[in-house]
Amino acid sequence: METKNELYKYCLRLGDDALILGHRLSELCSKAPFLEEDLALTNISLDMIGRAQAFLKYASELSDNFITEDDIAYRRPENEYYNHLITEQPNGDFAHTIVRQFFVSVFEYHFFEALTKSKDKSLAAIASKTVKEVKYHMEHATDWVVRLGDGTEESHRRMQIAIEDLWMYTGEFFEMDYVDDILLSAGIAVDKSLIKEKWMKEIIKPLEEATLILPAYTHMQTGSKKGIHTECLGHILSEMQYLQRAYPDAKW
Question: For the chain, how many structural domains are there in total?
């Protein structure tokens, strides 16, 4: 397969996004504002970790190093993770959790909808399952954006702060590099330029309904495609990889 190396890295990127954000959301188990929301966020976390397993398992099949999806998930150094920077940002208050999920889920819905048309059957199959899950994630986050933005003065203030804090990480969603270009020419990857307008249109409507305003600045943080991250990722990995590093090859 001429595109094997690029496809391997593409799977890492998709798997890492789900793995890291799934881990972040798992930190909220038993800490959500009320029981129903606790269950909702935990279920979203489980969806994402299941998706991570699917993509990283496919990556392990593409690798020449005879590694498993667990090796890929737990035994890489920080600079070999390729998740979007927004997925590693702290949960913060509930407003930050919701705004982060809103930006990510709207993007993922349109991305995976496009990926279902991939010529790579494995990617298309994972995308077909994922888009059904992500549709719920998107609807859930959108409902909360409107509810909090159009709620009390305090909830509106916190939502606006969260938007200001997280907006700078959204530009990465639409970046393309040589991996994307090679796989796109083979009919495997998604042309992100075609979903940017859909993403923007999808987020504007609920924000306007909630009387929330997007920042005017356009400077965006970047680096994840090169393994460059914020300090947040290192702290996540120190927890997530502890057992594997303390007890290599441990069996339950």
Answer: 1
One DSSP character per residue, 175-220 reads ---HHHHHHHHTT-S--THHHHHHHHHHHHHHHHHTT----S----
Domain membership of residue 32 (yes or no) is yes
pLDDT of residue 1: 60
Closest CA to 76 of 237, 231, 251: 237
- What are the phi and psi torsion angles at 209 (to 5°)? -65, -35
For residue 218, being part of any structural domain is answered with no
Structural domain for 41, as ranges:
4-212+226-246
> What's the rounded mean pLDDT across residues 119-131?
98
Specify if 252 maps to a domain: no
Residue 16 covered by a domain: yes
Which pLDDT tens digit goes with each residue over 175-199?
A: 999 999 999 999 999 999 999 999 9
Q: What is the pLDDT confidence band of residue 235, given thresholds at 50, 70 and 90?
A: very high
Which CATH number belongs to the domain containing residue 196 in this structure?
A: 1.20.1260.10
